[in-house]
# Entry
Amino acid sequence: MSEIDLDKLRSELDDFAEPEKKGGRSPREERIIAGFEEIQRFVEKHGSAPKHGEDRDIFERLYAVRLDRLRTLEECRSLLLPLDRQGLFLGAETVAAARGTPPDDELLAELAGASGITELRHVRKSADKRAAEEIANRNVCEDFEKYKPLFERVKRELKSGVRHTLPVQTMDEIKMAEIQNGEYFIVQGQIAYIAEVGQDFRTQYDRRDSRLRVIYDNGTESNLLMRSFQRALHRDAAGRLITNPDMGPLFAEERAEDDLASGTIYVLRSKSNHPVVVANRDILHKIGVTGSKVEARIANANLDPTFLMADVEVIATYELYNVNRIKLENIIHRVFDLTQLDIEIKDRFGNPVKPREWFLVPLFVVNEVVERIKDGTITQYVYDPTTARLVKATF
# Structure
């Protein structure tokens, strides 16, 4: 028998060895890191860690809650410390001691949408335990791309003031009618969207309940009972209801005696010779709201990059009474957000400027939007640029 070459045999067996993992992370770890990176981007932009306080921006307060909870969980600290280039985990023990350490299952549910985390560290009644388990049991949302634009829009509307938030803790209770299809909440540091509300049924205590499909802005979802969602909101000191921007009728056809003038919606067309403007002149409009005379607003338009450094003509105007001009303008721009003109021009000093408020939309659609703002139905519609018309929102 010939002598076995062990080195050769080892090299041949290596071909059948299980390939070594190359530092792959679990989906839960990826979501924890993604949430931490949002906080890091906030710090880079503002120069300090997010802080609590009613006078703070809603997103800063949301990041502050998330950072506190990241600091309290050992699993998160060990994962994120090597990435903490800004020293956000310094003094983490002091912060945790001052604020108290929430149960690990709640922390993981907020930060990672983890599933299977059901071991509770505190004694709670069975209903609270069930609520915590259902909130914790999240899965990856396979069709999240369909919902992602909704979350982006809600965030823009919160920043612009079209929407605002109401603390859940100040309410006597979350009414069943408020948890319905299309509503948004902030729970455990995530924006939650009620995508589906199932058929009503009666519990063993003869209470009405139903099964919800809840989508979260970190790309996860959960299928839980409405009453479990209610309890999760109430247990969360930072829980919020995000208001619906449906403002009802905004202004009437005619001014009443006791109405206070608020301003004018104006629609302008540019006389610029810029190739993009020339090619789209018939459907390119500037839509804005002013509290002064439109004529005064457009004076010296040819010197103002806002007006594309060119004269303009007034196509349409609509008088406003007793409305918030800024909120109204935000609503109009939200509807036409997908059609905003992407153009860069030079101001009179040679500096590059990207003008806003110019939209590629036909005038008849602008008229329809104004009418739907008047009757309060605009929140039910979105603009479809492929068909150049308003269409009913599908979710």
Summary: The radius of gyration is 27 Å.
